[in-house]
Specification:
Strand content: 5-15%
Structural class: alpha/beta
Strand order of the largest sheet: 3-2-4-5-6
Radius of gyration: 19 Å
Shape: globular
CATH superfamily of the largest domain: Glucose-6-phosphate isomerase like protein, domain 1
CATH class of the largest domain: Alpha Beta
Mean pLDDT: 85
CATH topology of the largest domain: Rossmann fold
Number of strands: 8
Length: 254
Amino acid sequence: MALEFFETTNRNMPMLNQTERQLFDYVVKNMDEVKSMSIQKFAATHFLSTTTIFRFTQKLGFSGYSDFINSLLITSHQTRPMEIPDVIQNKVYCEEYLKNIMEAVRVMPPKKIAQVQKVLSLRPNVYIFTDEDANDIGHYCEKLFIGAGLKTYFPEVGYQVQAALDNIEDDDLLIILSYAGREAKLVEMIERILFKKKPFLLSVTRADNNIIQNMSDVNFYMFADEITMHGINLTSHVSILMIIELLIYDFISK
């Protein structure tokens, strides 16, 4: 099911000023923390007045701070894992599936897209790493970047990963595709890379506060119902494909 918070705020994003966009980004990255904050605490965290925060929530499309918090609570509830039979029984699931994809595209900030395009214009070496569930997507993304004329590597087995870690340089592009955004192996690997080098780190994760998101230079949000069956994760990763494809197609067009 598409997230009500993002559906409500998306159409109002163009009206936000720079400070308000920074507040919005903070809310998305710290949703679990913000939903328990009073307006006084939220204001104090950013050294702003409660009046400024109230106006911020209204510009997002809410009647006030309480309405804003309720939307965060609903969003948190909707991101809980569900079993696939319940999802299939939802007669409008196809519509919600499409809404999730559209939402991922709609909340791609033009400024972040421009940052990625600037990096791609320098034709860096591209290194792609994924979590276990996005492995097949990694292969497709490798194909996209190679097709766009960029030297691209998608290391999988141990010796390939080690070689990549040894070869990544400051001017390279590091892409991390991870729904949860907190897999220990990926986080450890990123830390090892950033300890020695400073490549541009682009990630695609779900829209919550996660470790990989916070380590990234640019992060894009994906939306999906969390679906499991017989202990297997069947959560859709189509949003990741949409985001990467749009970035590549935009690069090719330029």
